[in-house]
């Protein structure tokens, strides 16, 4: 539940802020007649995101056991890649996001309502598709669909409410700190999804060490127990974890968090190479 809540909150607030920036700019520049096509673009982006989620669930359900392992493992790796890119992209682009969106709106205005709808669609659909993919893989990792669904709904609800309050200037939050904290949390969740993907590939026989466990606590902690479910839903903990899962997820976590929490070093390297 906690992991899906964090995913929905982070991605949902990003999308809400993007929509808020677009709406505020159109209102400020006296182009309120373009709000309708903007909302059409946003709605289509939401439909596309829901469609991807439905497609992933339907496809997974129709596959053989071996096909499902391949599908779940591959989508897990893709989700980890997208989420990792997303947190670094937001870290770099956050300061200039408003000006970038304003520029896109100005460019689209001359082309008419359709261009505004396309601009809104493209701006929002990236967040939606990433969310659908990551939520799907996280559902597979957590296993408890009911609690994960509650977390998803709560996260989206809080994100929409915060986005509206920020738009109305009713509440002020340090967005830089918020995205850094939630980005760190998402990297931890992504490490759990990565471990799950490794496990699926081990079941296929494509990665070694499926039966070489660093821990196996099923004798005193059932996989469907409350504690195991809470840990799975927050950090992707599994009661049986192989050395290969542990090492790959651990290296990913250490490297990505080091890079993410040390932006000054990354910036210095970029300046030197330039």
Automatic annotation (TrEMBL):
<dbReference type="GO" id="GO:0033573">
    <property type="term" value="C:high-affinity iron permease complex"/>
</dbReference>
<protein>
    <submittedName>
        <fullName>Unannotated protein</fullName>
    </submittedName>
</protein>
<dbReference type="InterPro" id="IPR004923">
    <property type="entry name" value="FTR1/Fip1/EfeU"/>
</dbReference>
<keyword id="KW-1133">Transmembrane helix</keyword>
<feature type="transmembrane region" description="Helical">
    <location>
        <begin position="243"/>
        <end position="261"/>
    </location>
</feature>
<feature type="transmembrane region" description="Helical">
    <location>
        <begin position="70"/>
        <end position="88"/>
    </location>
</feature>
<keyword id="KW-0812">Transmembrane</keyword>
<comment type="similarity">
    <text>Belongs to the oxidase-dependent Fe transporter (OFeT) (TC 9.A.10.1) family.</text>
</comment>
<dbReference type="Pfam" id="PF03239">
    <property type="entry name" value="FTR1"/>
</dbReference>
<feature type="transmembrane region" description="Helical">
    <location>
        <begin position="145"/>
        <end position="166"/>
    </location>
</feature>
<dbReference type="GO" id="GO:0015093">
    <property type="term" value="F:ferrous iron transmembrane transporter activity"/>
</dbReference>
<feature type="transmembrane region" description="Helical">
    <location>
        <begin position="34"/>
        <end position="58"/>
    </location>
</feature>
<keyword id="KW-0472">Membrane</keyword>
<feature type="transmembrane region" description="Helical">
    <location>
        <begin position="178"/>
        <end position="198"/>
    </location>
</feature>
<feature type="transmembrane region" description="Helical">
    <location>
        <begin position="108"/>
        <end position="125"/>
    </location>
</feature>
<feature type="transmembrane region" description="Helical">
    <location>
        <begin position="6"/>
        <end position="27"/>
    </location>
</feature>
